[in-house]
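User: Could you check the structure of this?
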Amino acid sequence: MHQGGSASEPFGHSLHVAVRMAYALQASERYRRFKHRIHDLLENNANPYKKVLDAMMIMLIFISVVILIREVKNHVADGWLFFNNYVISMIFLTEYLLRLWVHSSATARIIEQYERDLFVQRPFRLLSALGAVMREKFSYMRKPVAIVDLMAIVPFFHEMRLLRIFIIFRVFKLFRYTKSLRQLLSILSSKRFELLTLLIFASIVVFVSGVMIYVMEANNPDSPINTLYKALYWSVVTISTVGYGDFVPATNEGRAVAMVVIITGIAVLSFSTSIVVSAFTEQMDEVVRTKTIQDARALSQFYLVCGYSEIGALVARRLRTRGRKVVVIDRDERAVRSAKEQGLIALVGDPGSLESYKALKIDFARQVLCVLCLDESDIANVSTALTLRAMHQEVRILSVLEHEANRKRLKLAGINEVLYVQEMIGLVAAEFGGKPVAFEAIHALSSEQSEVVTDEITLDEHVARRLGTVEALHVKPFRLILLGVYDLAERHFAFHPPKEFALQSGHILIVMGMAHLIREFKADLHLR
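Assistant: Sure, the predicted structure tokens are below.
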């Protein structure tokens, strides 16, 4: 730092202090964490506190506008005027300054300039660093939303009566806090060239027709259109097909102009409507995709199904019946459409691509219970697993196996459990860290055959006391297989328990067999 400060003796100390402060702030964990929290609160739509902030700001905007309207002809209490002129304005000013602060890092620019000058052995140029900081801040200040924020603060200087009209600019701040309005602006902006062209055309028609009607009507004492302003007003009202009727041409020439303007107005409205409809049609897929991503990010915990094949549909359906949340990613639009028809959150994307998961912006550690790779291709499942492992090392991954020869590839890709339908019985006992995370998926997979299914039978206190042990179940007459007993309280699965295994209330019997025979067995348990 000494080299940067000693290069210019009169300012050496001040420059040294500026650089030292920049380094101190950059190294301060508390400062960086605080700035990140402010940025997250103001800009991150997934932050739950941002919704509270947005709601509060919207409420303040409406209060401010209501006070402005009431003040026109009625007396407003001094307390409300103080609240509107000072409190609300100060809140908006604070928000504006915070947004300006988090937009860019002044300390980073100072450090960057200092290290660059130090590298080329020249004096530290503080003014250049400050100039870079100001350019970045100004790039934010000239954005439309920032200009609206600034105009909303102007009423703070309420001694200038004329400036109070700028309170109405606070209404435009609603676009910042309301997603639907922002989406509407985004959709319309995609057709800004067409809309601008139509606006220019309409403006030319308004001006030409205004001048023509003025020339035709101004010298007629019976005509109310006797000034250019009234002529332009009449032209705007007529081309918009509103037609108030307050100004009506009195000459035949003026009426001829009116007919042309009316026909042109209908054409302008038709074109503008078609442009807006076209914009919504083109952007609808993106709007739906954005909404789907937001729905997925809002879930606390869910199963991520990669590949909505026939097995995937069975798994997702079974998970939903158990009250589990499911998110589906599939590259096939038809499969995604089918998943949505089943009420699932589904997104078109390649499960083997990082971009698909980056778009979701989900927290794998906090939100994803288990990833189910259920594509019909083992190669696709390997690709998905490799991508997921590159993003998160600890997430649980379960995959279906189509061909036994690919089992090793799936294991090497980082998949925790490989499910082979033909080995379903042996895999029911698989547990992840003592928790049967994959049990529901295995259960659904075992239902792939329409005739043979697995089912759970929960024992109540009466049935458990009467039976006593597994031997008393007598499953063989019903041609059923007892895969195991799950102890819900202990979260333990006993695979193929011995005959003397004691049954207790709350135990869940996992049985496999014909669906109608399982129903008969359930009835028999309660009728013995």
